[in-house]
Automatic annotation (TrEMBL), chains A, B:
PROSITE patterns: HTH_HXLR (PS51118)
Native species: Jeotgalibacillus salarius
Keywords: DNA-binding, Transcription, Transcription regulation
UniProt key word Transcription: yes
Name this polypeptide is given: Transcriptional regulator
Length: 111, 111
DNA sequence: CCGGATCCTGCACGATACTG
DNA sequence: CAGTATCGTGCAGGATCCGG
């Protein structure tokens, strides 16, 4: 079994936290994942309401990236009107410790 | 004791994770904290070596912000040549669960 | 050795209009 | 309802020089 070592564009060593930040960094991803994980499956417009301040573009963009990473699952119902649900995947569930830790810290430190 | 509720610029509710991201979000803060927490007290240039790719400006800027947040402690020795050490604070130690969770995830998922 | 000051660039993020 | 398309912009982040 070969050793997989994380490197950046210049071939320098990266620590594992940088890998994580690459996947779920940015302003919205962890917040989205938190809601889908703990509030359960959500529709598109439900997420918009849960995320005050997010724009149309950012929500759909972040959802698409999260789906491509296999962290959430997109389920489309071909009805009228359209209905799309986003749920957490098994891989996404492995982020739970991170979400819980960050939520706990924000709650305690933020008052 | 009054209830402290997190709100954004428009008075909308924020979830605790957003508070956390405000404090330790961005490209470098968590990585810096990880090294100072688990590799122990570090000098300025030692941190530069531990953080391949970080620029002079970003390192000093992030260190200053982390110190102002009370997450790390800056100790200056008035010698020649100058010597400055950065160590984790008690408040900074409360981030340990987050750091461990993100490092663990990056290690497992990143291979 | 440890930074601050300045100037600059690019991309994350946003506003808005349009569509099946 | 659940998105795309287009166009802007501000600030995170970077390069470089200066100073104690």
């Amino acid at each position: 079994m070969t050793e997989e070592i994380q490197v950046d564009d210049n071939g320098k060593l990266k620590c594992s936290i940088e890998y994580t930040l690459n996947k779920v960094g940015g302003k919205w991803k962890l917040v989205i994942l938190w809601h889908i994980t703990f509030d359960g499956t959500q529709r598109y417009n439900e997420l918009r309401r849960l995320l005050p301040g997010i724009t149309h573009k950012m929500l759909s963009q972040q959802l698409k990236e999260l789906e491509q990473e296999g962290l959430i699952i997109r389920t489309q119902y071909n009805e009228m009107p359209p209905k799309v649900e986003y749920s957490i995947s098994e891989r996404g569930l492995t982020l739970k410790p991170i979400l819980e830790a960050m939520h706990e810290w924000g709650t305690v430190q933020g008052g």
